[in-house]
Amino acid sequence: MTPRRARVVLSTIVFSVLLAQVLLYPGIDTLVRALGATTELDASMWFLAAEFAAFVAFAGVWGALSDTAGKRRPFIVMGALGGAVGYALLALLPQLFAIPFEGIVVLRGLQGAATIGAFSLTMTMLMDLEGGHGRNMGAAGIAIGLGMSLGSPIGGQLYEIGPFVPLFGASGLLVFIGLLATRIEDRAPDPDRAGFLAVLKGLRAQPELGVPFAYGFIDRFTAGFFALVGTLYFRNVFELSPGATGLMLALFFAPFALFQYPFGVVSDRIGRTIPVVVGSAAYGIGVWGVGLAPTVETAGGMMVVVGLLGALMAPATMALVTDIAQETRRGVAMAGFNVFGSLGFLGGVLIAGSIASGYGYFAAFLATGGLELAVALMTLPVFLRWGQNRPEGLP
Q1: CA nearest 246: which of 256, 237, 234?
Q2: How confident is the model at residue 195 (pLDDT cuts 50, 70, 90)?
Q3: How many other β-carbons are positioned within 10 Å of the β-carbon of residue 104?
Q4: What average pLDDT score do residues 338-355 get?
Q5: Of 64, 131, 317, 373, whose CB neighbour count within 10 A is largest?
Q6: What pLDDT score does 293 carry?
Q7: pTM greater than 0.85
């Protein structure tokens, strides 16, 4: 399989994972009620948080196993099929047995523990490809964006059929991923025989990875914010249906998807500083703009702007991980990026959700945008220093 064809197949897997995940977002309040919850905001918060807590706990495990084995493909297949079973059980068990919502949250965590293996290691396989880090991460970015942009409106329409239909759809997508993954060629480097713990400890020798990890955290924090607070904000303040809410979220994810690949190629040419730092600062201000929008039309326009800014910074941030990481530790490096991203999503759900619950929606918008802007300002000196003394491997 040529690198170009491999890039397409791997991007298809990334796309399908995100599509399955986002199918659940537009009517998350409807879903948790059908699963036995007695509240909307709090139950939605914990349902989303359980998956990303599992992402945090297991992304590094999958990455280290892959690096020490010198293989990616079998672990992707295992993760995808395990995730498919998890989604199916979430849909079936509550209809057959009286399961308390706490049990549903535990099952959601198990589903997330499997799914992160398929997602993180597919991203790592894209890192293993030649052809330019920005190009490869741009391909991943457009797959992520397309999955999220299509998942919102499709999920909204599936909820119109029934509350469990998005779960069945997600399960089917994960089965497709497991079958597709059997066709890809492993390009993992020779296994790192230093052992599981030694691979993890090896990341300490590259503290500069903390910079893209920090951006992975705050960028996914905003994603968690929009998945929960943004969804309920559009549902309650503008009184949108699940279908209309899905379309509103798609106004962000469509430009976020379509422009990631070209912006990733641009970052290979001009470096990472402008896309990451300037793009993130403007992105934070754009989040404020969504919260300040007086009408649904204005809010939709701001969602498009925020999507474009997200497309500018996302592939450059992921490419920065590849620029820095040692070849034999890419699995753990990308897992680390996904761990910080998952922690960010978890924070966006729990922290922003708590702020919205206690102080209102605008306070949550203000805090989320402010954190994005703060990270950009705090890391600017590091990027300027890299510009004067480029570490080996950085563009």
Answers
A1: 234
A2: very low
A3: 23
A4: 83
A5: 317
A6: 93
A7: no
